């Protein structure tokens, strides 16, 4: 029950706790760096060029009910690529041009979209 030996033992315990804490912070930093590198590797480069077809995200559509309604409309054709991520789009009719942020569009890889409503006649058996 020597007070100096007990004090030294307590200081050693505090140093060990400090080492555990430092190691935990270092492991968290390493994990965060690896996670960020993994995520950044899987990001797709979004470069747009004039003449390319894109889909436009409709953020106002969430006010309407209906789970099956798509929030992406289009395709629209890019007429100009302006600085700071601004795109000038043209709709189906050539007179309708408008500007949007590039974060609201994604490339369109499909063919012609048929938006005509179809009806299905059901017969009683």
How is this fold's topology laid out?
Elements: H1 3-41, E1 53-57, E2 72-82, E3 86-90, E4 97-101, E5 105-107
Antiparallel strand pairs: 1-2, 1-5, 2-3, 3-4
Provide structural commentary.
- The protein is an alpha+beta fold and 125 residues long.
- It folds into two domains: 43 residues; 55 residues, SH3 type barrels.
- It is built from one helix and five strands, in the order αβββββ.
- A hairpin with a 6-residue loop joins strand 3 and strand 4.
- The protein is elongated, with a radius of gyration of 29 Å.
- The chain starts with a helix and ends in an 18-residue tail after the last strand.
- The mean pLDDT is 85.
Biggest β-sheet strands, sense, barrel? 5 strands, antiparallel
How much of the sequence lies in strands comes to 15-25%
Structural class: alpha+beta
Global Rg:
29 Å
SSE series: HEEEEE
The largest beta-sheet arranges its strands as 4-3-2-1-5
What is the domain total for the residues?
Answer: 2
End-to-end distance, in Å?
Answer: 95 Å
What is the oligomer described by this structure?
Answer: single chain
CATH class of the largest domain: Mainly Beta
The CATH level-2 architecture of the largest domain is identified as: Roll
Percentage of residues assigned to helices: 25-40%
| Spans of at least 5 consecutive residues with low confidence | none
What average pLDDT do the residues reach? 85
What coarse outline follows from CA principal-axis ratios?
Answer: elongated
Total strands: 5
Please give the count of helices: 1
CATH topology of the largest domain: SH3 type barrels
């Amino acid at each position: 029950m020597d007070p100096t030996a007990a004090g030294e033992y307590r200081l050693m315990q505090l140093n060990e706790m400090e080492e555990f804490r430092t190691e935990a912070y270092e492991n968290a930093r390493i994990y965060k760096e690896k996670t960020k590198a993994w995520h950044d590797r899987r990001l797709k480069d979004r470069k747009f060029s004039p003449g390319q077809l894109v889909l436009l995200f409709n953020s106002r559509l969430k006010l309407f009910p209906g789970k099956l309604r798509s929030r992406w409309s289009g395709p629209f054709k890019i007429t100009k690529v302006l600085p700071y991520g601004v795109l000038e789009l043209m709709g189906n009719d050539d007179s309708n041009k408008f500007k949007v942020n590039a974060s609201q569009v994604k490339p369109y890889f499909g063919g012609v979209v048929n938006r005509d409503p179809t009806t299905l006649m059901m017969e009683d058996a």
